[in-house]
Amino acid sequence: MDRSAEFRRWKAQCLSKADLSRKGSVDEDVVELVQLLNGREQFFTTSSCAGRIILLDRGINGSEVQKQNCCWLLVTHKPCVKDDVIVALKKANGDAILKFEPLVLHVQCRQLQDAQILAVRSTHGLEVPLTHKGKLMVTEEYINFLIKIANQKMEENKKRIERFYNCLQHALEKETISMTSYPKEKIKEKNNSSYTHKKKRNPEKACGKYITEENNKELENDDHDDPGISVTIFPEDY
Predict the structure, then answer these.
(1) What span is annotated as the signal peptide, if there is one (predicted)?
(2) What is the per-residue pLDDT across 194-218, written as a single tens digit (0 to 9) for each?
(3) pTM of the predicted protein model
(4) What number of CA atoms fall less than 13 Å from residue 227's CA on the CB side?
(5) Residue 25 lies in a domain
(6) Which domain holds residue 138?
(7) Which sign does the torsion angle of CA 121, 108, 14, 161 carry?
(8) pLDDT tens-digit readout, 90-138
(9) CA gap 42, 22 in Å, rounded
């Protein structure tokens, strides 16, 4: 069985599994993005989150914040209000932390050249401690201020998802046109050359094959970082 067939079998196997996330389904704001990737033979998604505001309680032992060891006091994928946070904080008996987490998307890629068009980064997050050993350490006025910031980040995150979707769609369409413009022999020769002469390749040109300079500037806007995407290359053994 060739690697392409192996990848197709692996993809079908993974996408047929039950959704084990807390919600049990793909978030509404990333449904189109997930469908776009899973509709391409060279990609499939393994997990995703459109972005969320969460309130975690670490407990009284002061351990590092790890989701599997925390009490989830509040989780929302939409803008939240102060009253919900205040009510949730009353359940905290340790170190409660308010967090905003932007888009997270884990993508399996058939080969390296498929992963090149998905490389993005993000620092668009928020993490602030509110209680210590169950005692509220900030004022309600400050909590309200933090919630406004988190909600603003949620709205900005949604815009970034839309922008990323449009740029990715354009890049994939351009790639399809490029692939159909050459005979298979030339495409194969070109792909082999990209690995044989790897040291001579210009990284900027490699990315430029798929994302135009205009879209690349949009994805790397000075004022806005991009959604976080984790890309995994199809392994030899899985």
Answers:
(1) none
(2) 444 444 444 443 333 333 344 444 4
(3) 0.70
(4) 31
(5) yes
(6) 3-233
(7) positive
(8) 999 999 999 999 999 999 999 888 888 786 767 789 999 999 999 999 9
(9) 28
